[in-house]
Fold:
Amino acid sequence: MSIDSAIEELVKVVKLNISVQDMELENAAGMICAEDIYSPIDLPPFDRSAVDGYALYSEATSSASSNNPIPFKLVNYGSVLPSHNNAVPISTGQRIPEGADAVVMVEDVIREGDIIYVMKPIPKYGNVSRKGEDIRKGELLVAKGTIIKPQHLAALSAIGMTHVKVYRRLNIGLISTGSEVVSPLQGLKAYEQGFILDSTSILIFAVLSAYKFMNVNWYGFVKDDEHEIKAMTEKALNENDILIFTGGTGPGESDKTFKSIVEMNRDIRIIARGLAIRPGRPTSIIIVENKPIFLLSGFPVAAYIALYEVVLRALYTLLKIRNELFIEVPARIVKRVYGSAGYDNYLRAKLFKCNEDLCVEPIMLRGSGILKSLLEANALIVIPRNVEGFEKGEKIWIKIL
Amino acid sequence: MSIDSAIEELVKVVKLNISVQDMELENAAGMICAEDIYSPIDLPPFDRSAVDGYALYSEATSSASSNNPIPFKLVNYGSVLPSHNNAVPISTGQRIPEGADAVVMVEDVIREGDIIYVMKPIPKYGNVSRKGEDIRKGELLVAKGTIIKPQHLAALSAIGMTHVKVYRRLNIGLISTGSEVVSPLQGLKAYEQGFILDSTSILIFAVLSAYKFMNVNWYGFVKDDEHEIKAMTEKALNENDILIFTGGTGPGESDKTFKSIVEMNRDIRIIARGLAIRPGRPTSIIIVENKPIFLLSGFPVAAYIALYEVVLRALYTLLKIRNELFIEVPARIVKRVYGSAGYDNYLRAKLFKCNEDLCVEPIMLRGSGILKSLLEANALIVIPRNVEGFEKGEKIWIKIL
Structure:
């Protein structure tokens, strides 16, 4: 099954009902905005000075030159310019007094006591930020479904907002399965005893924890035991909106996760058992009473790819998030690569500057457990299942990690 | 003064003494690694299966074909393969028994009871991940000065680490100055009274808060009053490693921040009063007894640019951080743009796909207070001071925001 079909199917079946809460702006970066926000005012709300200087009437400077410096008498800042022969000291951001329509910069005049001499004409609205030139009253500032960025907070502050409606944080339960997988707390001797130190669940935990709109609850390890898996699933389902299992999803007999979950006495719907991606083929999706459960490979790289391409894409779709999950850029591939029929192939790759271009070098390592490729990679190359491969020198779109 | 010279000067003068602490891996993503970490073991630590299947001796399959299926008798998993006619059920990740050197996949055999039939030859080490093929004993996994990413945590877990040495979080004090600037709590009526609702300090706060190796302490507002500024500076210096002021840095008389700080009764060193960047010209840097103080513009866009190009670049240099601050990519500019002599010009811009390429469109708005340009921008174009501008259609390197 392709990722697209799986996500399409998932979205048809699952309706996440995430409540909305009011949050102070200073905590809202990274949360998902739950309302369309329009500006109630023009910004700037009045014509204002863009510099430190002197506000005056521009026409009165029209004949100014270094041979013909024009004097203006300074008066205190007020709401009106008394006459065309006056100028008013003004700071950056201050409102332009009525009657003035330009600001001459401090650096551009000669000042003698309370007289300034202007040496060249100032255009009308010179150094003035016009009312509404930044943001117009009624303009959409933040759309529902936007992951809030710092610049949104700046705009919302400018229109006098101190709180914003956001979706409450999604609870994601994370469980590691596989009798051979143990905590790194067991130390290196675990390897000698035939066990594997877990590295996949901390990877998934750390990637997801960087998204502020999620709350990752890490449940540790369960063995390949039907009762343990079912009990843990019940518990974690009660406490979360979505579950992620790592490991225990292969076709072998010892991997009991998939089997145990679908045999639970619940409303079960299988969306995918295995997906047409490499690495990540064992990735499976089950819905248990409106809650999605993602079963990822126990291998770090396969789980990492499926996390972005399956879990996060599914979440972005379910939550109608408008931001891009990946930045995609074109790069010249420096090595020939082959796909594998029937599978979307994901290659870890290194991006680098080459002359005028961006080049990308696939990291050619076998297997889906290759940690080093993740350490070195800063990009992903996708070879879609209907494409044989890419030629050396071809320009392809890659995803920046 | 150019940014480069200012940072060079700063680094000569300031030595940040940031202590090192031991941190649990699960909290360490985003922190700066304070040690070079080498792998104490090979990974995988033994030849292991890359699939779910049956471990066997590859030579024994050499004449296998669909016309000549070769039977193997299954025996229980153990540390040794009893004979060349035996195969051992094995799970992904399990150690290959001695005497076996390949794994045939579950899907590729016909099984009848405790006999499997292999239909094609398996190459030596087929479906086997070799000892050390991922990471070699002694290999550098994470270098000192690296901002730790999730994939580093996975590698460190795999070598049995549960804690890592990181630099303690840097304390950054953030202070807003300017008598005309008030908190958004004052509401829209503040504009009618001639005040400006602050939007710059929440922007800076939110950008910096996304960096986990920093701790941003937000002190609120001080007026353009020498005593207030000095008192706040004393207090904030005691509590932080670095201070950032927004606003109050113009050349006008009402902006007292720079003047007040340099007149403090302390060991003062001025690195820059104003920088050759637009927007961001008022940006200034003062060292007070080994602690850098950055004075940024009160305008959000100017402060935002200076935050990345001056403050963060300076921090990355001071802390010897190895990660890139920006991702840079080439894009075709769709409009002619001009620089301004003597200044590095920063234009906010929109990146978009155009045919096979990435195109970039500068957002042409005057002024440094233009919030909308920040909302729409996803890239920065830099026109260096020695460059007149860029032609329409020219390919330039841009920074992704």
